[in-house]
Specification:
- This protein has one helix and no strands.
- By secondary structure, the chain is an all-alpha fold.
Length: 68
Amino acid sequence: MAAKEQLKTGRIFYASPWIFAAACALLTLIIGVFAANNYQREKKLMSQALFQEGRAVLNLVSAGARAA
């Protein structure tokens, strides 16, 4: 009986590093995908913010020109 339990325990410890490596690889992949999506979203939001600021400056200049 003890040999059978030791064999089961040995199999678990043998498979455990592979499971750990697969989990780490999957976690790295998920974090990479989220980082890429976040980067794209930030680029889009930054360009929209700069466009809005540019329009605000143009409106300010045109309003100043009309008032003068």
